[in-house]
Amino acid sequence: MTRKPLIAGNWKMNLNHLEAIALVQKIAFSLPEKYFAKVDVAVLPPFTDIRSVQTLVDGDKLLLTYGAQDLSPHESGAYTGDVSGAMLAKLGCTYVVVGHSERREYHAESDEVVNKKVKAAVKHGLTPILCVGEQLEVREAGGHIEHTTAALIAGLKGLKTEQVRETVVAYEPVWAIGTGRVATPSDAEEVCAALRSALEEKYGAEVAQDVRVLYGGSVKSGNIADLVKCENVDGALVGGASLDGEEFTKLCALAAGGPLP
Ligand SMILES: O=C(CO)COP(=O)(O)O
Known about the structure:
alpha/beta; 8-stranded parallel barrel; TIM Barrel; 14% strand; globular; isomerase
């Protein structure tokens, strides 16, 4: 099958709910409808913005989708500050990012915790965007394939084959996040292809062909076209460039094959 590219804007800890409304409106009204047939567009705002984004998307029947940047591995209870999969599902979220390197680094999330979160997402009908990516020293030592494939398989542990088919994977090399140092298309393709091969080995070729594998790390309108030309790169998880409506719209149009609106 041909995989439809996904461009997902990870806003990280930026924009309040009023700014969120303005940005979503800008994206939705500048990107002509025909592009949504060629590329899935999603925004991933902070929790505090999601209700406002939901109201806007539902009310104006916008074609973009939205999701969250994290979820609790638990169902409910005494977990101060956490947000459950059920709560996100109720808000109409399509996606939830799991295992972003910033969560792994600043919140000490292990592969085991990430796996619990992936399961919690799937349980509530959310599509996990499972992030894996190596640190600079791992890449310099030549261990990037081993590191990323091991994190992928650990993150998916215990999922049924059909649940794996619905998962989105994101390869985000830590050294390329927010640094302006983008992986070359061949760096991205090498790892994305290896991740697909690991899926094939474990879950079969048919499932591996259906899973979308994104690249993330300093993606901009200036480099997206070459990245999505790669056979195994099915879109991007975009940080900084997703906060600028004009830039993000441009990036989505280029991922859809252009021309610019
Ligand atoms: O972490 C990222 C997306 O999840 C990438 O961030 P930047 O696009 O800002 O490098």
